[in-house]
From TrEMBL:
<dbReference type="Pfam" id="PF00126">
    <property type="entry name" value="HTH_1"/>
</dbReference>
<keyword id="KW-0804">Transcription</keyword>
<comment type="similarity">
    <text>Belongs to the LysR transcriptional regulatory family.</text>
</comment>
<feature type="domain" description="HTH lysR-type">
    <location>
        <begin position="1"/>
        <end position="58"/>
    </location>
</feature>
<keyword id="KW-0805">Transcription regulation</keyword>
<dbReference type="InterPro" id="IPR000847">
    <property type="entry name" value="LysR_HTH_N"/>
</dbReference>
<keyword id="KW-0010">Activator</keyword>
<dbReference type="InterPro" id="IPR036390">
    <property type="entry name" value="WH_DNA-bd_sf"/>
</dbReference>
<dbReference type="InterPro" id="IPR036388">
    <property type="entry name" value="WH-like_DNA-bd_sf"/>
</dbReference>
<protein>
    <submittedName>
        <fullName>LysR family transcriptional regulator</fullName>
    </submittedName>
</protein>
<dbReference type="InterPro" id="IPR005119">
    <property type="entry name" value="LysR_subst-bd"/>
</dbReference>
<keyword id="KW-0238">DNA-binding</keyword>
<dbReference type="Pfam" id="PF03466">
    <property type="entry name" value="LysR_substrate"/>
</dbReference>
């Protein structure tokens, strides 16, 4: 048994197919299959059921994979501890970010972080909150950027932003005449929402008054805040948006409406597992973002935090 075989085993569990697992490990499929077979022969057990349509670990395979992940994680922590002592940022960092933050935050840090640390490989993936949290706890991600609080004892949260929710209202809607909004104004009638699974959708519904008894004859649930904004710009209804999505238009667009104080806000945090040791990386990422975001959005500002669960 060797570390390479454990890496192949974990990759196969992650991708649940030989082609994807081999590609992620930069080896050929026959090479990966051969190493898995050697590992099964050595252990004397079948680790994956190859007869099913989708590759699945056997009962004993589930336990072996869990131990393999832990072994690989401990080795990675050892390497990271040495890097911390040497004041280096090298290797790979796997970062997950929710889709309602990605278009507005990733351009602020990705190129700069890679440029300042040429030996660091930064891999960013968009994931919905529940999957992102699962991967952080399984050590399949190093850092998460998402809405908090999570109140999970396995994870450490570093608050970054308190980002206000804003109304985005078409000229044809009655709310367009309001200077500011109240939560009671958000009744659901004419309101465009993100599709289920997005934490931002849950937060909007937590702000809303109870929905009307006479729903619209048509609905559209999007995976993109930008799509919802375009619907409103074409004179249909209204939606709620995070302030980062309208920074370039907030001063001169009358469709954008603030809420009366205390404004509803979403807390955005950097989240890591409690075993995470690369504090230098976390601090650098935090500073890269904060230096490019208006100070009014920095964590600790007045506002009413809206939970996403």
């Amino acid at each position: 048994m060797n570390f390479q075989q454990l890496e192949y085993l974990v990759a196969l569990d992650t991708h649940r197919q030989f082609v994807g697992a081999a590609a992620s490990c930069c080896v050929t499929q026959p090479a990966l299959s051969m190493q898995l077979q050697k590992l099964e022969d050595e252990l004397g057990v079948l680790l994956f059921d190859r007869k099913k349509k989708r590759l699945e670990p056997t009962a004993v395979g589930v336990k072996v994979v869990a131990h393999a992940r832990q072994v690989l994680r401990e080795v990675q922590l050892l390497r990271e501890a040495v890097q911390v002592e040497k004041d280096e940022l090298v290797g790979e960092v796997r970062l997950g970010i929710i889709p309602t933050l990605a278009p507005y935050l990733v351009p602020l840090f990705l190129v700069a972080l890679a440029g300042r640390n040429p030996q660091l490989r930064v891999r960013v993936e968009e994931l919905q909150s529940e999957e992102l949290v699962r991967r952080l706890k399984a050590h399949q991600l190093d850092v998460g950027l998402l809405s908090t609080p999570l109140d999970d004892p396995q994870l450490r949260e570093v608050p970054l932003l308190d980002e206000p929710f804003l109304g985005y209202v078409s000229e044809s809607h009655p709310l367009y005449q309001r200077a500011t909004l109240k939560p009671a104004d958000i009744s659901g009638e004419g309101l465009w929402l993100l599709q289920q699974g997005h934490c931002f959708r849950n937060q909007v519904l937590n702000i809303c008054a109870p929905p009307p008894d006479n729903p619209s004859s048509y609905t559209y649930e999007s995976g993109s805040i930008e799509t919802l904004k375009e619907l409103v710009r074409r004179n249909h209804g209204y939606t709620l948006v995070p302030e980062l999505s309208v920074l370039n238009e907030i001063e001169n667009n009358p469709m954008i409406k603030r809420f009366e104080g205390p404004e509803p806000v979403r807390e955005v945090s950097l989240v890591v597992h409690h075993g995470f040791v690369r504090t230098q990386l976390l601090n650098q990422l935090r500073h890269l973002i904060l230096e490019q975001v208006p100070a009014r959005l920095h964590a600790g500002q007045a506002g009413q935090k809206i939970n996403w669960k």
